[in-house]
Amino acid sequence: MSQHYNRYEKARIIGARALQVAYGAPVLVDTDQTQPILIAAEEYDSDVLPFTVHRGEGS
Questions:
Q1: According to the model, what pLDDT value does residue 50 have?
Q2: How many CB atoms lie within 10 A of CB 10?
Q3: Quick one: 25 exposed, middle or buried, by C-beta within 10 A (0-12, 13-18, 19+)?
Q4: Do residues 52 and 3 lie in contact, with contact meaning Cβ atoms separated by under 8 Å?
Q5: Biggest CA-to-CA distance, the chain
Q6: Would residue 54 be called left, alpha or beta, if left means φ above 0 and alpha means ψ between -120 and 50 degrees?
Q7: How far from 5 is each of 15, 31, 42, CA to CA, in Å?
Q8: What does 1-59 look like in DSSP terms, one character per residue?
Q9: How far apart, in whole angstroms, are the C-alpha atoms of residue 40 and residue 44?
Q10: Helix axes of 36-45 and 7-22: crossing angle, nearest 10 degrees
Q11: Is the pTM of this model over 0.90?
Q12: Where are the domains of the chain?
């Protein structure tokens, strides 16, 4: 991912993706993992997730 995410953004991305995998979304990497959270983390590390983070300019 060309953008650097902070730990909260990373947690949100991996959590959202794990939920998708848990509900049957296709896995985007070859893995031996069976737990959705571990699959999502591996996908994140492989830089294959199509997520973007939009940061606001304050509140």
A1: 87
A2: 15
A3: middle
A4: yes
A5: 43
A6: beta
A7: 14, 24, 16
A8: --S---HHHHHHHHHHHHHHHHTTPPPSS-----SHHHHHHHHHHTT------PPPS--
A9: 6
A10: 130
A11: no
A12: 7-45
Residue with tokens 């959202």: 16
pLDDT band at 15 (very low <50, low <70, confident <90, very high): very high
CATH class of 7-45: alpha beta
**Sign of the torsion angle spanned by Cα atoms 5, 1, 12, 54:** positive
In single-letter form, the type of residue at position 2 comes to: S
How would residue 55 be classed by pLDDT, with cut points 50, 70 and 90? confident
CA distance 33 to 23: 16
Distance CA 6, CA 31 (A): 25
Structure tokens at 58: 């304050």
